[in-house]
Amino acid sequence: MQVFKAFLKTSKKYLPTNVIYFIIFTVIALAATNFNTDEDNSSFKTDSLNIGVIDEDQTDASQALEDYLKGMHQITLLENEKETLLDGLFYRSMDYVLILPKGFEERLCLGEGDALYETVQIPGIYSSMFVDEQVNSYLKTLQVYLAAEFPLEEALSAADRALGESSNQVKLVEFEKGEGTSSTSTAIYFFYQFLAYVMISMILNGLTPILTVFWEKSLAKRISCSSTSLLSRNLQIAFGSVIYCLAVWALFMASSRVFYGPEMFSQKGLLCIANSFLLLPLGVAISLTIACFSPTANAINMINNILTLGMSFLCGIFIPQQQLGADVLSFSKYLPFYWYIKNNDLIDGFSGKAEEVRQFWQNMGIQAAFCIAIFAVALAVSKYKNASQKA
Predict the structure, then answer these.
(1) Which pLDDT tens digit goes with each residue over 100-134?
(2) What's the CA gap between 363 and 155, in Å, rounded?
(3) Which of 37, 137, 208, 387 is the most buried (most CB within 10 A)?
(4) CB of 85 within 8 A of CB of 122?
(5) Who's near 237: CB < 8 A, 6+ residues apart?
């Protein structure tokens, strides 16, 4: 076990760097987790806007529309002065300006739908579009009653009642904080979502330099001259790599236990742990393959960034898979991160159905196949390079 002992001695040299990486990556993962699980972003809500109204018509219909908007927004009556409007929008004292021109009520009663009102908006503000929908909804409802030959006063009252009832029927759906729907469960999902990028980055940056040492010509020749076979050397290096990766994985598992408590021992928590375990052989396999080419420290960082960031963007870590294009998803299926994230998404909505269990283990099997394939490449490259060094 001389090679294994040499591996442990070499790893001590990179221990401080690895600890720094762990701290940095843990902070990044937690920051990303907290950002994505912020309760303020957990549900849709309509904000009350500052709306300026210029009422040039001064009729019952225009006043009724103002009263309707007052129930949802902050209304300020304005004079039709261009400078006042521009200043209000520029300094954001107003988000939206509604102009009701003279003849508004008359054209409304005649059933005209075009140019009933004018607006002044800040370009690119989507909340203004929502106000447009509210105004149009009110006017269309009012015109329905007018078309049914309701007197204007009765039509205004009926429109207020109809819109009031429909708004009361719109309810915010809140989920009970049980298993699978609590903020803690959601936090676990995002923690393990980013864990693939964090862990593989840490393994490549920490393990690959150690493995590269064993490919230095002087050390490689000393090992090849000994009684240690190539297979034994590779197995000892792989064993040391597994020990290193297990230590990294155990640190992250301990961190998640501290941060999320007993939730980690729920069904979803245990599935996340099982899914993350396959990141270990994946990291070892990639590091072994890279180390065979004896890259420099700068080259290792460059390769690490290309691999981890590339797979993170293509496979759904930074951008959800549901938002990726079909062509991107078709390509990302040939990358191991895709199947890890697919399992993580499955766990997030896991209900225990037989089909979900089958899909979970199928994705685990595909990840294991990737690990075996990359290990085979690493062993093949290692054997070829060892033969070339002897020659």
Answers:
(1) 888 888 888 888 777 788 887 766 566 677 788 88
(2) 60
(3) 208
(4) no
(5) 3, 4, 7, 211, 214, 288
List beta partners, residue 131.
Answer: none
Count of alpha carbons within 13 angstroms of residue 97, beta-carbon side: 23
Contact call for residues 75 and 66 (beta carbons, < 8 A): yes
pTM over 0.85: no
| Rounded Cα–Cα distance for residues 249 and 283 (Å) | 11
Query: Which candidate, 360, 178, 179, places its Cα nearest to that of 267?
Result: 179
- Residue position matching structure tokens 């290096």: 237
CA distance 305 to 195: 15
Q: Are strands 118-121 and 96-100 parallel, antiparallel or unpaired?
A: antiparallel
Query: Amino acid identity of 16?
Result: P
CA 293-7-336 angle, to 5 degrees, is 55
- Over residues 284-329, the pLDDT tens digits come to 889 888 988 878 888 988 999 999 999 999 998 888 887 788 889 8
Please state the rounded mean pLDDT for residues 19-46. Answer: 61
Q: At what angle do helices 336-348 and 267-277 cross, to 10 degrees?
A: 180
199: tokens are 């862990």
pLDDT tens digits for range 319-348: 888 778 888 989 999 999 999 999 998 888
Q: What are phi and psi of 15, to 5 degrees?
A: -60, -50
What does the radius of gyration of the chain's CA atoms come to, in whole angstroms?
A: 32
CB-based contacts of 122, cutoff 8 Å, min separation 6 = 89, 92, 95, 96, 128
